[in-house]
Design goal:
single chain; 658 residues; mainly beta; Immunoglobulin-like
């Protein structure tokens, strides 16, 4: 539902806390050949110095719990956009960084058939945990570390790492006798940033391109807690060594590093991306537009590039790929006041984005042009890079229409071949042309007015395609219902979920929602005075109806209850006069002519799916001795996909809106 009208309801997803398991090991066991952190620079002889301990404060976490966010998170797990990250593992110790949320996520499945002896996740949970330990003391269950061991390992029962998480570095021990191999991890791109812990050395990885990538000096420039601080990399023999020149040293994609953070810091890359949800850009059934914000977090101006990439094939057990998302972007030329939507076929770029500034890219999916998909979702990726080599991948998914869109104008009348327009539509008509009944030339010709006059339009379309014009409507939340659990009669289980119902008769609301409190809103149009919905008829993209305002109706413009010459009563105020004495019946004949193009030329992506419109025409008789003709345009937005009025199935009513 999108209320208020013409507003954009943007749902921000919930940031998920890292997942993982912890267990303690009561017995200290010795493990040889563990990576060591040495203070000797790369390329110089090794010594026995050790670097640092964990900070005195534990890592703080926060979780925002919201129903809509939770729904988005769980729904996205079934429609992820896929990337295959390839990581080269060499014999011995490897420091890797996962740029994807792996599927499957279980360690046993991810390392099946690989000669991996152990995997270690730095998971500081106590003040005394050390990020670096003696080679003989790094053991399964050690404070601050989670460990996975293959089932054939004699210490497998002491393992406490069971899944891998996105945006995390890991130590992977490949058998010394094994050959180098490429480990392919399929998953959804990670948008997780780095949570820096001040006063400690942090085990992290970076989202960068293979070449060129930013130097550590450029990456941390302007970030006081990180600039000039030591950075350690794992050398081929499993020894951690600091870089001697941070202006020349560059992070590699998929690699993990130890970085000292002197004071609080937030920098994850030289640019930050915000698609509104950590799950990416999700174009649900009623979402046609989304915003992608790119912020320059570096100390200098950056050149930003955005391009569309194809999704990798889904892994086994996941919904199939229906096709690529046909994205469009809003091309805004503010100086010329020109706004248009164009297909995203080439790269988009922004030159010299100033430090701290944001580039807001408005993206949309023209779902009416997508073929209906029996299964799966349309999926793609957006790559965002800068001139230093920072790189983020944004998942993009779009739900296709359940039925193919009509070839011509959207048919809202009964008898149509499709019910793709079912739901509640709200918008407005703008009148900009009126005939002049006394014009000596052509009194029926509509001529431009000096200004525009607008009023609200409310339409409802049933599941069978029958459209009705409404004067008012109530959008009410119906609470969920429950039923006894067959397996446990003492408990209830959900029967019907909570939903929005569309009601035209206020007296029916208590009957429909029961004893639950009323939560909703009333929407009406002051341009009409009828109470019962009026059925629209016609076809071929044009729908019509006639609305008669009786000569004695309180809203008739000829009638005035306090004026003796306009109250439709005789001189004694006793008998009602017939029509034509003091008042006349006014009949309005409306015509809605749906068009395939936006009458305002805005060309939004939702046109033909969640937005429709066209030419509005109306003839008025009874108000003047000659017929009055008016014309303009109209636009409607679907605010609810509810194909039944007054919840007929539960209220025992016909779906007529009466």
């Amino acid at each position: 539902m999108q209320l208020p009208l013409f507003g954009i309801l943007e749902c921000f997803g919930v940031g998920r806390a890292p997942l993982g398991a912890r267990a303690s090991c009561p017995q200290r066991l010795r493990r040889p050949a563990t990576p060591r952190v040495i203070s000797t620079p790369l390329g110089q002889p090794t010594c026995c110095g050790l670097e640092g301990r964990a900070p005195v404060a534990a890592l703080a976490r926060w979780i925002l719990v919201a129903l809509v966010g939770l729904i988005c998170v769980f729904a996205d797990r079934a429609q992820a956009q896929w990337v295959q990250q390839q990581i080269v593992l060499k014999p011995g110790w490897n420091a890797v960084f996962l740029e994807v949320d792996p599927t499957p996520e279980e360690c046993d499945a991810l390392f099946a058939g690989l000669p991996v002896e152990s995997v270690w996740d730095f998971n500081r949970q106590s003040d005394s945990a050390q990020f670096i330990q003696d080679p003989t003391s790094l053991i399964p269950g050690a404070a601050g570390w989670l460990t996975w061991l293959p089932s054939t390992h004699p210490l497998a029962s002491r393992a406490n790492l069971f899944i891998l998480r996105d945006g995390r570095p890991y130590l992977v021990k490949l058998a010394d006798t094994a050959q180098s191999l490429t480990w392919t991890v399929t998953g959804k791109p990670s948008l997780r940033g780095i949570t820096w812990q001040a006063g400690a050395v942090n085990f992290v990885g970076f989202h960068v391109t293979a070449a060129p990538s930013p130097s550590f000096a450029n990456l941390f420039a302007g970030e006081g807690g990180l600039a000039g601080q030591p950075v350690y990399a794992l050398d081929p023999v499993g020894v951690w060594r600091p870089f001697t020149d941070l202006t020349a040293a560059r992070p590699l994609p998929g690699a993990g590093y130890w970085v000292r953070c002197q004071s609080p810091a937030t920098r994850s890359a030289t640019i930050a991306v915000d698609p509104g949800s950590r799950e990416g850009l999700l174009f649900g059934r009623d979402a046609a537009e989304q915003s992608l914000r790119v912020r320059n977090t570096s100390a200098a101006a950056r050149n930003i590039t955005l391009r569309l990439l194809a999704s990798a094939p889904p892994p086994a057990g996941q919904p199939p790929l229906a096709g690529a998302v046909a994205l469009e972007y809003r091309d805004a030329k503010y100086a010329q006041a020109q706004f248009d939507w164009k297909p995203l076929t080439n790269t988009l770029s922004f030159a010299s984005l100033l430090p701290g500034a944001e580039w807001n890219v408005r993206l949309g999916v023209r779902r009416s042009a997508l073929p209906a998909a029996a299964v799966g979702h349309y999926q793609s990726l957006i790559e965002v890079t800068d001139d230093l080599g920072a790189r983020w991948l944004i998942p993009v998914s779009a739900e296709a229409a359940s039925t193919s869109a009509p070839a011509g104008p959207l048919q809202l009348s009964s008898g149509g071949a499709t019910n793709a327009g079912a739901g509640l539509w709200i918008g407005e008509a703008v009148i900009n042309a009126v005939s002049q009944p006394a014009h000596p030339g052509d009194p029926a010709l509509t001529r431009p007015t000096g200004g525009d006059f607008s009023f609200r339009l409310i339409l409802h379309v049933d599941g069978d395609g029958t459209a009705r014009l409404l004067q008012h409507v109530f959008l009410v939340r119906k609470a969920p219902t429950f039923k006894p659990d067959p397996a446990n009669p003492g408990f209830n289980i959900p029967d019907q979920p909570a939903r929005t119902v569309v009601v035209t008769d206020e007296a029916l609301i208590p009957q429909i929602i029961g004893s639950a409190g009323i939560i909703g809103r009333r929407i009406s149009s002051a341009a009409f005075g009828f109470k019962s919905p009026v059925v629209l008829t016609g076809g071929g993209g044009t729908n019509t109806c006639a609305i008669a305002l009786d000569y004695n109706h309180p809203l008739n413009p000829f009638k005035h209850i306090y004026h003796p010459d306009h109250n439709n009563l005789d001189e004694r105020f006793e008998q009602t006069l017939p029509e034509g004495k003091e008042s006349f019946t006014v009949t309005r004949s409306l015509s809605l002519e749906f068009t395939t193009e936006d009458p305002l030329g805005l060309n939004p992506p939702g046109w033909g799916d969640t937005e429709v419109g066209g030419t509005y025409r109306e003839t008025i008789t009874g108000l003047h001795r000659n017929t009055i003709h008016i014309a303009g345009n109209f636009r409607l937005v679907r605010v609810a996909r509810v194909g039944t009025l007054n919840d007929a199935a539960n209220a025992g009513l016909a779906s007529t809106g009466q």
